[in-house]
UniProtKB/TrEMBL annotation:
SUPFAM superfamilies the record matches: NAD(P)-binding Rossmann-fold domains
Family that this chain belongs to: Belongs to the NmrA-type oxidoreductase family.
Domain NmrA-like intervals: 7-238
InterPro entries xrefs: NAD(P)-bd_dom_sf, NmrA-like, NmrA-like_oxidored
Keywords attached to this entry: NADP
Gene3D superfamilies noted in UniProt: NAD(P)-binding Rossmann-like Domain, UDP-galactose 4-epimerase, domain 1
Protein name, as recorded: Uncharacterized protein YbjT (DUF2867 family)
Species per Swiss-Prot/TrEMBL record: Kineococcus aurantiacus
Length: 295
């Protein structure tokens, strides 16, 4: 049985990034405190060596302080989807304040690539505000800034099959530079930095596994599924959501993401490029048809 002293806590442990952090820590032999609103939702994770589920609610400061007490490191990410950027800032501040009150000795915060560069994208700016609050807290911390997630092309931006074609549509120019990384690799890198924060002496790193244009993304998606991959640009004005409209506008003005591919590979030699990500078994939703829209 593993020694429970020196547990590493992972907030949002059932999410894409959080669960990847848990898996990587467990594989490395670290005892893990998987922090979730409902511990029963973490049944798959607690089956991993050294992992136990603990209740923590970002709306309950007392539960956060209790969950953070005694850990040797803490992984944090914040989300904007449920309550918007203002809600993300409130969540981030509450988590940082609770970590400071619990005297957490090391923290890794997953932010977003470009957060520090005045992007004008609401959910980037909210993460920058959280970063600033984290710095002001005095907590020892490393910030991981992921670029565009590869998973987006299997979820909200999944291509559509039209006959023998697999068509990717997005409000970008065909050769707009777009750096990519998988959420799984962000989790592995974060787990490494939770245990070895000195690997990023600057205190922040923008991580990327590949650098492609949308045409190349479409080509690789098509090849993976034995179809002809085709990219069709759409007008950014057609994006209903103001936040995402701002993001695609920012992406259209390169350089947008500026991930350090060399340092990323040093931190995680097995980081996936997009072709390897697809070859690993990731596929677009085969049930989506031309008449359906991404959510």
């Amino acid at each position: 049985m593993r020694d429970r002293r020196g547990e590493v806590a992972v907030l949002g442990a059932t999410g894409q990034q959080g669960s990847a952090v848990v898996r990587a820590l467990s594989a490395a032999g670290a005892p893990v405190r998987a922090l979730v609103r409902r511990p029963e939702a973490a049944a798959d994770l607690v089956g991993l060596p050294g992992v136990r589920a603990v209740h923590a609610d970002t709306d309950d400061a007392a539960s956060l302080r209790e969950a953070f007490t005694g850990v040797r490191a803490l992984f944090v990410m914040t989300v904007f989807a449920a309550r918007g950027p203002a809600g993300e800032v409130a969540q981030g501040r509450a988590v940082v304040d609770a970590a400071a009150a619990a005297q957490v000795p090391q923290l890794v915060y997953s932010s977003v690539g470009g957060a520090e560069r005045r992007s004008g994208v609401p959910h980037f700016e909210s993460k920058w505000t959280v970063e600033e609050h984290l710095r002001a807290s005095g907590l020892p911390a490393v910030v991981v800034r992921p670029v565009f997630f590869m998973e987006n092309f299997l979820q909200s931006m999944a291509p559509v099959r039209e006959g023998d074609n697999l068509v990717l549509r997005a409000p970008l120019r065909p050769r707009t530079p777009l750096q990519l990384i998988s959420a799984e690799d962000v989790g592995v890198i974060s787990a490494t930095l939770l245990q070895h924060p000195g690997l990023v002496p600057a205190g922040a790193v923008e991580v990327a596994g590949d650098d492609l244009g949308p045409e190349q993304v479409a080509e690789r998606l098509g090849r993976r599924h034995g179809l002809v991959g085709r990219f069709e640009p759409t007008p950014v004005e057609a994006v209903d959501d103001e936040d995402f409209r701002a993001m695609f506008g920012w992406l259209a003005r390169p350089p947008a993401y500026q991930g350090d591919l060399l340092l990323t590979r040093q931190l995680h030699p097995g980081v996936l490029d997009f072709a390897a990500f697809l070859a690993a078994g990731h596929r677009y939703p085969s049930t989506r048809t031309r008449t359906e829209e991404p959510t």
